[in-house]
Amino acid sequence: GGEAPPSAAKVLFGKYEVGRLLGCGAFARVYHARTAGTGQSVAIKCISKHKVLRGGLAGNVRREIAAMRRLRHPHIVRLYEVLASRTKIYFVLELAKGGELFARISAHGRLPEDAARRLFQQLVSAVAFCHARGVFHRDLKPENLLLDDQGDLKVSDFGLSAVVSTANGDRLFQTLCGTPAYVAPEILSKRGYDGAKVDIWSCGVILFVLAAGYLPFNDPNLMNLYRKIYRGDFRCPRWISPELRRLLGRLLDTNPETRLTVEGIVADPWFRTGLEEDRFLA
Ligand code: ADP
Ligand code: MG
């Protein structure tokens, strides 16, 4: 790194030397930082309290953060620490050095089926791990899928979207401001929904994008997009194998009752190919 004089670097809480901006989201800015002393690289996500966490860090939000801090999994971005100033909340996170997965797809196009499967297996292992602990992502989408320096997947924001939406008091607001292309039909219809089923739908959209190189549901007109999602109106491109086609159909099932569960995915022949046996049984 650069040898900026100490006075030029912003030091947070006497501990983190904040560096360059890594990315921006709807609610947050994420910076590269180094831990003073150990020199460990981390990512620091800054959220303005008045924008999002109107109710402060009380009750539910505090519990959600405690749950997130307990999630330790090779394919989930670790949350090391949560700090707060008067106006901001800082999430100190594991750094994902490879950047966003979908930046790579937009640059290089769709992945061969084997590579798509490997990343999808990593995604499902993270999702299964969280669901078994009662934590749902509810906002799985491209910007939340990062890569490490080995090209392995790291899911970010697990549990965080629940914190944000709890504080917002309106999940739909957040959804409509976010990425409707990944949102399950039952969310659009404003009925109650099951966090696990919603995550599975998003996993289906992500798998489609990995293997096809484009979105299954897409339309410049928002109402048309919603209509396509409601109807589950998508078509697999011809290069998708029959086995993968079948799995996609069972993930992008508009009926949450019949949609595959994590157990169903793990039992799927396309998914199981090349899988190390006991990885999902823990
Ligand atoms: P928001 O919750 O507002 O959507 P994100 O958590 O998605 O914010 O972060 C915004 C961007 O910052 C991401 O899309 C990604 O490019 C980058 N980023 C976030 N977390 C990390 C991380 N742990 N390591 C590297 N880059 C990250
Ligand atoms: Mg995000």
Automatic annotation (TrEMBL):
Protein name per UniProt: non-specific serine/threonine protein kinase
Enzyme nomenclature, EC number: 2.7.11.1
Signal peptide residues on this chain, from the entry's feature table: none
Ranges for domain Protein kinase: 16-271
Gene Ontology MF annotations: ATP binding; protein serine/threonine kinase activity
Catalytic activity: L-threonyl-[protein] + ATP = O-phospho-L-threonyl-[protein] + ADP + H(+); L-seryl-[protein] + ATP = O-phospho-L-seryl-[protein] + ADP + H(+)
Residues of the full protein shown: 13 to 294 of 475
Gene name of this polypeptide: LOC103721952
GO BP term, example: signal transduction
Binding residues for ATP: K45
Species for this entry: Phoenix dactylifera (Date palm)
The organism's place on the tree of life at top rank: Eukaryota
